[in-house]
Every structure is written in structure tokens, then in C-alpha cells.
Design goal:
eight-stranded antiparallel beta sheet; Jelly Rolls; mainly beta
Length: 216
């Protein structure tokens, strides 16, 4: 009897010990209220990943409520947390014409470019999609890994503020620029992840990054 009890206790202890090393998968947050992801003061809640292991302070800075990006080298600033089923609105402007983007459904590992769906922010091309790192969508690519918008640009001139909204609902991602629908992809194989802003060649300023729950 004592030997049987001792064996049983050992099995239980081994099971508990093995469970200590197991990590629970991170569940994405589904927002239920408006959240300002950029607090206007610093980069709390954000993680930078840049090519060439460049120090983030050389690319991203905050002053007078504005997040500034030099655009070089390539990389991105992403949220620490993962999200699903949301809309995110970025208020931004170029200080020189160039390239950027909003990355949604970023999944590890961090690299340039990660598994994600890029919502194109390049000057005069805002509203295109670029699909990276093994992500897939139902729509056929227009070239390489891009799904290009079929409507005229709604972007304002360089130096003026633009409102760029991305709506992520289940496996569908839709882009609006200054209130106009630009493009949509469906059947995505990634439906959650971190949210990022690209550094890709142009000086850029951001004054708000707002996360909101989806409307019914």
C-alpha cells in the first residue's frame, strides 16, 4: 500500500512539474471600449524592430504629442499586445513624400518583414495591400504579393493630416482613407496579432493611434 501511494504521489508531482514549463498561448484582446494606443508622451506599450539592429531612439521619437519617424532604416513599431476583431485609426502625415504602412495581424518572430498583412501607406498608394511572411488571402495578387486598390486615391497632399482606418473583422481586412473605402481582402489565414507602423524610407508624423471595438 505504501509503495502504491508513493508511486501515485510521484506521478502527480512529475505532472505538476511538467506543467510549470508549459506556456499558455497568448489570447488576443477583443476591444470593448476605445483605447488610445499612443499616449502622446512616450512609447509605452510599443516595441521597435529595425533592420541592422538600429537603436529605436534613432528612428522613433515623441515630442509635443507627436510620434515622429525618420523612415530609415526599414522596420516597424508594434504594440506589445495582440488584438482581433477591431478597428484601428491612425492620424498621420508625411513631412516628405515616401513610404510607410499599418501592419495588422503581426505574428512572431519579429523580422523585416514579419508574418502580417500590410495596409499600404505609401504616398499616392494608400489603400493597397501587401501580404507577408506566409499570410494568405482569398483575392489573387495583382503583382508579387500585392492586392492593389481599384479606386482613385483619397490621400491629402504631403504635409496635411490624413485619417487612415483599418477594420479587422474575422478573416476580412478593410482600409478606409479619409472616410473613403479603398480596398478589402477576405479569407485571411491570420485573424489576430500585433498592430504596427512601418518605418520605410520617409519622414512621418503620427498624432493618434486609436483602437475601437467593431460596430455590430
Amino acid at each position: 500500500m505504501k509503495r502504491t501511494f508513493a508511486s501515485f504521489a510521484l506521478i502527480v508531482l512529475l505532472g505538476l512539474a511538467s506543467g510549470l514549463g508549459a506556456e499558455e498561448p497568448v489570447r488576443p484582446i477583443v476591444p470593448t471600449a476605445k483605447i488610445e494606443l499612443f499616449n502622446g508622451k512616450d512609447l509605452a506599450g510599443w516595441i521597435s524592430h529595425l533592420s541592422d539592429n538600429t537603436d529605436s531612439s534613432a528612428v522613433w521619437s515623441v515630442k509635443d504629442g507627436i510620434l515622429a519617424c525618420t523612415g530609415k532604416p526599414n522596420g516597424y513599431l508594434r504594440t506589445e499586445k495582440s488584438y482581433s476583431n477591431y478597428q484601428v485609426t491612425v492620424e498621420w502625415r508625411f513631412t516628405q513624400a515616401g513610404n510607410t504602412g499599418v501592419l495588422v495581424h503581426i505574428n512572431p518572430p519579429d523580422k523585416v518583414w514579419p508574418l502580417c498583412i500590410e495596409c499600404q501607406g505609401k504616398h499616392d498608394q494608400q489603400g493597397d495591400f501587401w501580404i507577408w511572411g506566409g499570410a494568405t488571402v482569398k483575392e489573387p495578387f495583382d503583382r508579387k504579393n500585392g492586392v492593389l486598390r481599384k479606386v482613385p486615391s483619397a490621400e491629402k497632399p504631403v504635409g496635411e493630416w490624413n485619417t487612415y482606418q483599418v477594420v479587422c473583422r474575422a478573416d476580412t481586412v478593410t482600409i478606409f482613407v479619409n472616410g473613403q473605402k479603398m480596398n478589402s481582402v477576405t479569407g485571411a489565414n491570420v485573424t489576430s496579432g500585433q498592430i504596427g507602423i512601418q518605418s520605410e524610407g520617409a519622414a512621418l508624423e503620427v498624432r493618434r493611434v486609436t483602437l475601437e471595438p467593431l460596430s455590430p
